[in-house]
Protein 1
Amino acid sequence: MEWRSPSPAGRPPVFSGPLSRAPFVSRADSFAESVIREMTRLALEHDAINLAQGFPDFPCPPELKDAACEAIQADINQYAITWGAKNLREELARKVGEYNGIDVDPETEITITCGSTESMLAAMLALVVPGDEVVVPEPFYENYGPDAVLSGAVPHYVSFRHDLSIDEEAWKTAFSAKTRAVILNTPSNPTGKVFSKEELSFIADLCIDHDTIAITDEIYEHILYDGKKHVSIGSLPGMEDRTVTIGSFSKTYSVTGWRVGYALADGALTERIRKIHDFLTVGAPAPLQQACVAALRLPAEYYRDLAADYDRKRRLLYRGLQKAGLSCDLPEGAYYLFCDISSFGMADTVFARHLVETVGVAAVPGSSFYHAGGEDRLRFTFSKSDETLDEACRRLENLS
Ligand code: GLN
């Protein structure tokens, strides 16, 4: 099994024609393929339970399906306005005002994108120029590495402490006059860390002092446990015009395949993000944007039930992993368990292969969340039905 893309030098060019001219160097050669999606492929190949890729295997709310079908039947099948349908932007402005405490003008400060993945890349391409430094807390969601490469950013990684608190001295050292942006993710993937208001205020002060932009991926904002509260750095004083807040419908409403997300930022930043977005994708799917309006109108109980359901799933998988000898902490948010596998004496990729092939459960090797290290970790998602998780736990009993 190949875990990392081979170096261009290690593989003969497969092209004929002009691309076969040596040496052929591509931007794509400088980062690895997605390990998460590679694990999904392997799970399918081995008929394993896919606890690798974070997507629900249960249905989305019926209100969303009905609204999507209605929109298609009503012939909302052509391009929406490139930066998003007006009624979706208006509904979203209301929601982020109430939930995130961010005041946005739907006409000039919202861009609806193809998932948060596009928002992050569009923000990086729009706001970072080659050579700029970008601070990335580590471990980090695997996309941020390639996003940095594609935008020409020089990543500067800052590790969390063992208990996931932030090391203020390390953060101060990471910021310099060259720091253009910091990439935040709260609740975090893969650790589930939820940044506190104090931590975000400290980071906000660094951003203000160094004239830096915070690009914050808040896709798991409604998946929180044990009374944790979500804080958006964009709501803190002085951050109004230096934050890109990224969100998505994928995880909150269990529609990861719809590819509808958004970036909120002040007008000057949004103007640039919209230009990149326009040429990357033209726009997010028009009928699904209408269904997302219905999503934003779901009652408050929907969010309470979502968090309660994930809390139950979190505990269910946690117990199964503990029983199998895989130790981890209960996360504060998001839907992953990040396990310590050091007692098994196997590197993460070897262990992941063993799990998928002989136990029938797929997980993500920890090293895909680090620029270096993480071989003593595996990530499991619990964004699955209770039945799927029960079966995974049963299979994990065979782990030896
Ligand atoms: N965000 C999800 C995860 O971390 C899925 C993303 C992906 O397909 N890479 O598993």
Protein 2
Amino acid sequence: MKAAVLFEPNAPLQIENVSVRKPQSHEVLLRTSFAGICHTDLHYMEAHTPYPMPVVLGHESSGVVEAIGDEVRYVRPGDHVVTCLSVFCGTCEYCTTGRPALCFDPEIKLPPGVSERLEWDRPGRIHTFMNLSSFAEQMLVHENALVKIRDDMPLDRASLVGCAVMTGYGSVVNTAKVGPGDTVAVIACGGVGMAAVNSARVAGAERIIAIDMNADKLELARKLGATDIVDPMDGDIVEQVLCLTGGGVDHALDCLGSKRTAEDAFKMLAFDGTATLVGLFREGETIELTGSAFLRERKVQGSLLGSNRFRVDMPRIIELYMQGRMNLDVFISQKIRLEDINDGFAAMRDGKVLRSLIDFGPSE
Ligand code: CXF
Ligand code: ZN
């Protein structure tokens, strides 16, 4: 099968012949339908966090089950699925207390460099990315990295739910627990931030302030639920938010993941407000917060892929889409072939697109 391989940091991906072995116990072989290009792929491509290479990146995908290994009861060939990098064991303390996204059982969630699901006929190993490797025509995954979805859900929209939409929705609903009447600010309206804006509306937030440097994204955010927009070109974003709200927001979500944006998220909080850090920081980056601000019960917390319980959350998001309450259509900026994946990364670097989807073509 064809797969896009990253041989070294910052190099263009190369299309290579790679194979997957037969599914073993608890493993599922998928025919990939669509794979989104996420900023996390770029983050690892640029080696802001090291990852063993060569590697097949990609982690936001939908597909159709082709074959199953022994013991697999959850899916059958022909089922439509969405993948999730939050593969869970189901038995550890995190899993059994309702926080499966934090599961780190190394036998199920194989750490970088341990997974051996991909093979090729060259010397040396080819690594799997985050237990998925979606930039490939087929994926071999643990059954607990999948959620079954309804057959009438379009597989292109479904793939987005595998990362960006789950992360945005989950950070609002699961991590921040935004409720009716709350005031919410979302910093950075890429795929994750845009989904957070839309989810804050679904959650009943009264005021939703979208913050981004791109005017088109701010306009789209308005369509998805933003009641106010803030452009950093018009002045300090903290000042603008404090002015709009007369004292700050209940929730600020930093969907970028940088020192500046995380600190700004904290600074724009009202008393008792919570900053939720959603975006992926560069390895080792630190933030500074003013200690006395905590006296007014302000809080800061992290969120990992929307604190997901993805087998429950993803079908719920899909229902919201089918009911017309979540908009996933606008996320798809372009569909491209696997061969054009480097153009997809270039478009993301330029900030031109919300999502480029690799279209693997019909599965039947
Ligand atoms: C990722 C960020 C890196 C850790 C796993 C979750 N989120 C989205 O791509
Ligand atoms: Zn992602």
